[in-house]
Amino acid sequence: MPIEYYFSLALVMFLCGVCGVLFRRNILFVLMSIELMLNAVNLVFVSGSTFLKNLDGQIMVFFVITVAACEAAVGLAMVIALFRRYGTIKSEFFRILRG
Amino acid sequence: MLIWLVLLFPLVGAVWNGLLLPRHKLLSHSIAVAGVGLSFLAALPLFVSLLGEGAAGSVHLAFSWIQAGDLDIGMEFVVDRLSGVMLLIVTGIGSLIHIYAGGYMNEEKTTARFFSYLNLFIFMMLLLVLGNNMLVMFIGWEGVGLCSYLLIGYWYTHKPNAVAGMKAFVVNRIGDFGFLIGIFLTYKMFGTLSFSQLHEVLAGQESLSPALTSGLTAIGICLFIGACGKSAQLPLYVWLPDAMAGPTPVSALIHAATMVTAGIYMMTRLHFIYYLAPSALMLVAFVGGATALFAATIALVQNDIKKVLAYSTVSQLGYMVLACGVGAFDAGVFHLLTHACFKALLFLGAGSVIVALHHKQDMQEMGGLKKYLPITHAVFLVAVLAIIGFPGLSGFFSKDEILWRAFSFPGVGWVLWLMGLFAAMCTAFYMVRLLCLTFYGKNRSDEHTRHHLHETSSVMWAPLVVLAFLSIFIGYLGIPPFLAEAFHGSNLFSPFLSSVIQVPPAGEVYWSFLHEHHSEALEWSLMGASTLLALGSASFAFILYRNGPTPFLQERKEAFASVYRTLYNKYWVDELYDRIIVRPLKEMSEFLWRVVDLGIINGGLNVLGQSLMFLSGVTSFQMTGSLHRYAVVFILGLMGLVVLVIV
Amino acid sequence: MSDQLVFWGLAGFITLSSVAVVTVRNPVTAAVALVINLFLLAGVYAFQGADFVAAIQIIVYTGAIVVLFLFVIMILNLDPEHLRSPRPRIWEHLVLGVVIAGFAYIGYRFLDSLDVGKVASNRLPDNTYDVAMILFSNYLWPFEIVSILILLAIVGSVAIAKKPK
Amino acid sequence: MFAWINSSIVSIIIFLPLIVAVLALFSPSVRLSKWIALGGSLVTFIASLHIWFHFDAKSSALQFVEVYDWLPSMGIKYLVGVDGLNLLLVMLTSFLTPCVLVSLWESKVTYIKPFLSLLLVLETGMIGALVAFDLVFFYVFWEVMLIPMYFIIGIWGGSNKIYATTKFVLYTVFGSLLMLVAAIVLYLVHYEEHGFYSTSLLDLYKITQMGLSTQSYLFLAFSLAFAIKVPLWPFHTWLPHAHTEAPTSGSVILAGILLKMGTYGFLRFALPLFPDALVRYSPLLMTLGIVGIVYGALMAWMQKDAKRLVAYSSVSHLGFVVIGSVVILNGKLSEEALTGALYQMINHGISTGALFFLVGMIYERRHTRILSEFGGISAVMPWFAVCLMVATLGSVGLPGTGGFVGEFLILLGVFKFSPLAGILASTGVVLGAIYMLNLCLSILFGPLDKEENKKLTDMTFLEKTYMVPLSVLVILMGVFPNFFLDKTRASLHHLAEHVSEYRLMVSHHDSEPVHEVAGASDTKNK
What we know:
The structure holds four protein chains of four kinds. By secondary structure, chain B is mainly alpha-helical. Chain B is built from 27 helices and two strands.
């Protein structure tokens, strides 16, 4: 398989993730979209690793997965905390950054 | 070595009294008297060593004071005949007044602070007199100003006293400003501030370039501004009458005998500059003459005994300045000497009167005190006769010398002489008026005061007696030559100083008239005229006032109401200064503060800050706080960047 | 040929499930789509010969992370009100278009410049042992540090999600 | 051990306060914290005395030098040392800090521990900025000074503290950022000429090939930073606010030392680095300085608040320092004026420091600083009266106090440069007497008619422990100035020579300024 194919596939996944982050109002969806993007990156790593015959890419994927797990855990904890506090997880509700 | 002792004793006295603050009045008094008295005793041998024929002055360096760049100013002192004379005046009369002050301040709870200031004053005055360069003199110059400030405001709980002190300091500072500029000019031109070096440079010049002459004139005028401040000349005399708020010994010591003569001393010290700057001296002469006259007219109608004496001091200082102005520095110093004696006596006498009357100073409430204060009256009478120039007393010789030297000044001399003569008449008038209103006629004070009237203690009258003797006899040191010949004596004073005061070679052409011979007849007639006029004026005053303020006088007062009011209000000079200097300055400051500082500079900055805040408010509309919006912008921007890079 | 078939099959379903994750309304559906997506991705890894990664992909992602999502969804128990998303506005369509176009353009330029030609990628031989060797030698420190990170994340999430007293 | 102390004494006085600051912050009790802070600052003072006594006054070279490479590839070094220019200021800093700490001994300030440690951090910043001979380190310390002051005013200040402290910081940062840009340009200019990177001042002093326009821009950028710190008119408006709001100890440090950083910066950076630009802009600086002298004095006269009055008097006094630093005679800096400027910095530090202490004392007792609330205090607080009088006279520049020596030398130099400028500047002496004596008059003299004032207590023993040395110093510095000036002479001479030498080397770029200056002094009559 040409490596371009894998990259294209990763690109599509990443695009989906970006769109999810940009357009979904529900924080849960945003988090899931982030997972999508991380996986797109993983795909690139693994493909590159295979292509270059270098196993460092796989190691990197290992770390990315770990970080993703942490991120998901903390992110979801925050979702719970937010829901408890404000009763909603719609992102447009949270506008603390307003100038 | 003695010179260090002379300086040390008063300083030790000041520090002892100032830091340890002995509670006991007698102790602090003794410390102070010892401080200045020992200094006087140390000064005596110093002076005696100068008496020998051709004894030269000596310079003593204590330590290098300021050294920066090419500038090297030493803490150096000069002992020569001029500073020797001043030394004796300061410590001698100072001692007498210190003794007297113990009696005068007897009602105070503690006097340590007072005597500390007084000793400090003596120390500063000695620095002024002994300093061998302008800067050391300037320490003393401002130092005596400080002591004067502190002593005028000694009774500080009465606000006007403190205000008077401050006025004295500030007006003096204006004069000092001129002095300072003079110092700078001197240094710029000669690269040195030392009197002996300056003298060497200037005495070595055969002739002067026009640039040098104009420079010297500028220096002379600037330094004279300083002298105007310290010696209370027009237009900076205004502080001296107010300075009478201080205790009377202070008025006697500082504001009559010593400090106020600093200007005359300084000009005499720098005679070699003034001799080479005749136009500056011309200004000096006219300012002196005008001051003598101006102050004397004001003194004619004042009712406060110390105020009269204050204006009299201003007027007498005018004489001395006039003497300097016509190149008769020795005559100026001679008058300084005699004036120190009789004016100190007058002030101390007035002080005795004031103490006896429980601090009343208005002459309208006095009168007839001759009966109660016989000794005071006697010495006061001597002093009055001395100051009005009664033949044979000290003032007669010194004043006559000045008038004669003024008259013999070529060109405008007769104008100056007329000014002096008129001032002398006024002096005779107001002094006799003062004498009459105080001591003769009926007593006008209230019953209670009269009941307690008695002669002052011996600690107060003893110094007065000494001063009275001095006032009578000290004049014989400087008998005019023609009189001396007539009486087979000789003038001791001028030749004594002539080793110090000499016309530099470059100025000899201009000042050649100093050695001109005048006919004795002219001198006799002038002396006779001035003496007669003064005595006439004095008898006129005696006739008018011997019974105190009478209805007749009241009528005259009303007849000349406008003149009287002008004089009584001192020509409204204070008000004038307030109107044209103080108030505009204050208003300008107010304007600068409110409008420029708060309004323009600070306001401008605030406007800048506020407009930035406003701008940020305007531009923050896109800061909706919506995370998505931010993410969208972020992604679009990122994509834009990437596209930009890869295109 | 079979390779082609497997790849295209996986790729097609991955694409579909990715789109599903971001478009469906119900979070449970999305989570299920995500599970499918990650599972298929594990297939791709295995297909490339990265067996170890494929395994942890399934274990950690599908087994742990997405399950965590499902738990949270259940805990929140969102009512339908929360699930309704507003009608997309015009600018959103515009941005969507721009983003897709931008990605397409950037991807095109990137792949175009890659210039690796038609080299077929070989499946790697069995490499789990090698991965382990590298991980515990070269990457030992990062590995340990990441373990601390995980610990922190656990403590942090517990602290955040704890019911306030 | 002793050798180590000797070779790293400068680093010790820089960082000791910092270490002590941390200890004081985390000490278990307030009492202990105070002891630690005071002890640390006293040790610092003793260490600086060690420098004073082992300083070779004959040499203009940098002494007690410490050099360590920090970023060799960029030429950044840790380079510190002492010479005649900064020695006195270091002494002043290490002397005033213990005074301030003693003054806080019995104060009821809240959060005393952070306050003490901020003061010590401030000391580190100030000493560091004084002894740093590397632009980067100088800049770092320069900013380090700012932060503690920001908090000191912002947390422990008066009612309008936030406005004051923000203004102070914004102003200063604005200036120092421009200085940073200029420093980077200077760094590159040096690289172009000498071919290696260096931020060491000793290397930067050797730049000779810098065009007049470059010099001018850099000079103006540096000068602006320093002028704001001084503060030179018209950049002074932060000062009255900062002083009015700052707590007493903050004011003392601010007026006593921080302001001198600006004038020190002129001497250390702006003058020797850009000699041609200095010649070009010295009339400008002198004009601003003179305006500041008169303007500050008039402002001070108008103030009803004692602290504000003293603050404005600083504007006036530091105007003297600025004009003293920029007197050019025959293309050469005037040594008299330079000496005066340096000396005046120290005098001002001591007398104004003392004045702020004194104002703080009556504020603590009466909770007001409005002049009309006082009067006749002299009767109930004699010690206070004496100290206030001495500080006032020092500030007024009475001969016999240090202020006179400084002002005299400055005015002498300025007068030689331009008589008109000298005369205008001298008016500040008269005006100074007016507003300072007005202060004394309102507080000390007059009737003691307010009930609250009758109950005032005189200075406590603790207050005397720092006020008496300060007062004595005011007089000592006036009577024996050579004791202090001896240490500075060689360095100032070197500075003056340096400026003239480097001017000659670059004067082929533009020889006009040389003529200009020669023309200014041909009014000599002899």
